[in-house]
Amino acid sequence: MTPTTLAIALFAGIIGIPFGDGRDVTGISGGTVAPFGNGSDGTGISGSTVAPFGSGISSSTGSASRPKYTNPILYSDYSDPDVCAVNGEYWMTSSSFNCVPGLQILHSNDLVNWDIVGAALPRLEVFDGCTSPRHGEGVWAPSIRYHDGLFYIFWGDPDRGIYEVHTEDPRGEWSAAHLLLEGKGIIDACPLWDEDGRVYVVHGWAASRAGFNSVLTVRELKKDLSGVKGPGVLVFDGLSSGNITVEGPKFYKRNGWYYIFAPAGGVPEGWQLVMRSRNIYGPYESRVVLHKGGVDTHGPHQGGWVDDTAGNSWFLHFEDRGPWGRVVHLQPMQWGPDDWCAMGIDINGDGIGEPAPSHSGPAGFTGHRKGTLRQGNGGQTCHRAVDALETSSGFSEAVRPGQIPQIPLNWQWHAGPSDNWAMLRPETGSLHMNCIPHEPRWRNLWDTGNLLLEKIVGPSMELCSEFTFTPLVEGERCGIVVMGMDYSTIEMRYSDGKTRLEQVVCKDAHKGSEEIPASRAKEEIIVTQMPSVEPTYSQHSAVPASFRIHLKVTIDPEAVCRFYYSHDGKSFKQVGSEFQAREGRWIGAKIGFFATAPCEPIVQKNGLSLTKRLKHGVVEIR
After folding, report:
1. 479 strand-pairing partners
2. Which of 41, 157, 247, 454 is catalytic?
């Protein structure tokens, strides 16, 4: 018996729950057929058997008159999304693990189109001083909530415990991360403020650290969030109910019921549970409300519930698509008169919803837009909003007169950044990256922190940039990398006084494998030196040679990457071999820039081993 059929058997009582009695439970009349209705609600699915519990509930705003959106709404890696609504605006964050800035803040007016407008963790305090990647560590499964004039984000660090940050303005600066509860293996934290002023948190457990999982724990916190007030109470044991790998809980209260939404069954083939109790500590009854069924969507995995401005309920969740990462879907959601919810579309008639491939949009939705840099927020900084599906570098757009230039928000470092890694250069509208030496135990780019990367965006994409490389030390290199547990680069490498263009591939990089030069063009490509420029320093000093070239990477719907170069930015030639992108640790593949140098030599002086500091080259990226 598969996990899905086991869950269906265990929770067969969901079939036939009285959602179809004709009542408009939203309290708003004049609507059309609900998402679990008769198949004519704009999903594009015809001839399906519909479960009996959706046929009479109206969707409160005439959803059939609105355009349809298509899932995934975010074809990119926004793992473990959570969402809240405040004054008609929607705010989302997601797991950022070791990537910096962490906890990207997304904003939307329609729940479909999202902008990145900030980041709650400009630095990871727990990683300060560590410029090597800590793959898969850091920020796991955050929750975003609004309470009493403040936005809060809670998350679990699997090695340290539950953290919290807060702010009045999610686009602006957030508080420093505060450790609420120290502990190993405590993850996936979500708060709930009750009507009596008391505050609680529900969280899961990571087997890799705690030695067990599938257990959900509720604790009361001190009202000032200075720490926990009471002991943890086990409120749900997934193993005892046939729900393996219960994790990612989200806490809500509605009509006197305490609800915990949580995925179970694992990422690839799991399902969504909803649990409820009249007492915050249980006992909780549970139902399966969304599962894979017969559709192609994997999972579906964890997410969050939100109501639109017309009172319609929606559920955002992720689906694991390998190299593309954990992409985000939006599901219609309905509450029945018995205070149970249903999600998605019951395509196979088993009483449990399946993910909808498309659906009439939420209130305010007028259609999908293409990724683009958005308008700024004003002020002196230049952190302009960026479409969450943007793929361009945006470095020239990030430089505005009278403003402090900032690297656009779609870019993240692979580790806690050092100030000498890169900076924007207003005079050229480019990103200035220094060639940073490898650390002594470096094996391949998996161990490199100064990778400036963005999420890859499906169903296909390309990244094209102009590089001006001024090397000074043998072995310095720069270029574009498609990064994951396997990676490939198209790069310029300086050796023997020449700068060569080549492709490098590394399989199983996370295991410390060596890089292998891929097949080059039939003739070795020597990058053309730029014309000499007049030095601005001493006339007796040599002018370092600079090399300029345009590099491009395309990624097709199967996540196959192809690499190109051009001397003029117009006519491109393919170089090297095709490369199959592969996901990273808990994240999708990413693409971006690097500039590195070999480890600096060790010299002996007065009996001591000292690192010899060298002057290194730079690269300008447009």
Report:
1. 491, 594
2. 247
| pLDDT value of residue 33 | 28
Contact (Cβ atoms closer than 8 angstroms) between residue 118 and residue 137: no
Decide: 268 and 237 in contact? Cβ < 8 Å: no
Is 247 one of the catalytic residues? yes
What's the CA gap between 544 and 526, in Å, rounded?
17
Spell out the residues 6+ positions from residue 80 whose beta carbon is closer than 8 angstroms to its own.
Answer: 94, 95, 140, 141, 142, 188, 248, 302, 303, 318, 326
| Cβ contact 309:28 at 8 Å | no
Q: What is the phi-psi region of residue 329: left when phi exceeds 0, alpha when psi lies from -120 to 50, beta otherwise?
A: beta
Q: How far apart are CA 611 and CA 601, in angstroms?
A: 6
Q: By percentage, how much of the chain surpasses pLDDT 70?
A: 81
Cα–Cα dist 124/139, whole Å: 9
Task: Say if residues 41 and 64 touch (Cβ distance below 8 Å).
Answer: yes
Q: How far apart are the first and last CA of the chain?
A: 55
260: DSSP letter:
E
Q: What is the pLDDT of residues 150-191, one digit of tens each?
A: 999 999 999 999 999 999 999 999 999 999 999 999 999 999
Check residue 246 and report its DSSP letter.
-
Cα separation, 618 vs 16, whole angstroms: 66
Looking at residue 128, its pLDDT comes to 65
User: Are 331 and 290 spatial neighbours (Cβ–Cβ below 8 Å)?
Assistant: yes
| H or E stretch covering 478 | strand 477-483
Q: 164 an active-site residue?
A: no
- Specify the pLDDT at position 369: 82
Evaluate if residue 545 carries a pLDDT over 90.
no
Burial (CB count <10 Å: 0-12, 13-18, 19+), residue 403: middle
- Are 84 and 145 contacting, i.e. CB atoms less than 8 angstroms apart? yes
Tokens of 237: 């044991």
Catalytic residue among 80, 82, 319, 346: 80
Give the C-alpha separation, 56 to 44, whole Å: 20
Is it the case that residue 285 has pLDDT exceeding 50?
yes
Q: How far apart are CA 424 and CA 431, in angstroms?
A: 5
